[in-house]
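DM from R.C. (forwarded with permission)

"hey, sorry to bug you on a friday — could you get me a structure for this? deadline for the figure draft is monday and I only need the backbone to look sensible"
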Amino acid sequence: MLNGKKHRILFVCMGNICRSPTAEGVARALAERDGVHGVFEFDSAGTHGYHVGSAPDARTRKAAEQRGYDLSPLRARQVNPYDFVRFDRILAMDRDNLGLLKQACPEEHQGKLGLFLEFGTRFPEDEVPDPYYGGEEGFELVLDLIEDAAQGLITRLGKG
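My reply, with the result:
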């Protein structure tokens, strides 16, 4: 924890209906499983407002449910200026969204920005691919990458 406060983590993708809500739901479940849920606060948002108020994509929810993650309570929202102040780390799913975050983020908060897969240990990928226009296997790959990076994040930050 940071000075007795929770680690506040924001996961970001483009529309907040596939990758970032998956990261939020998986990270929350893994922190709960590992007994460190009180150390973290997780949220997700999109760089674009296309789907504000929508539940995660049905294919995303189905793939997550098959692995025991419930994403149904989540609703899409867009990154807002206060997010740069509120969160300790703002982790993008890919370089395009990281670039958009860097453009919007005040200079004093730039150090909070990064790629989520920097916390991964099992895969060579450094970006979570957008599964939206692909098939079922894309959603499975997203879950594989996110489970790995979420566990790495929890392991690295949950101890301190």
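R.C.: lifesaver. DSSP finds five helices and four strands in the chain.
me: no worries. Strands lie at 7-13, 40-46, 89-92, 113-115.
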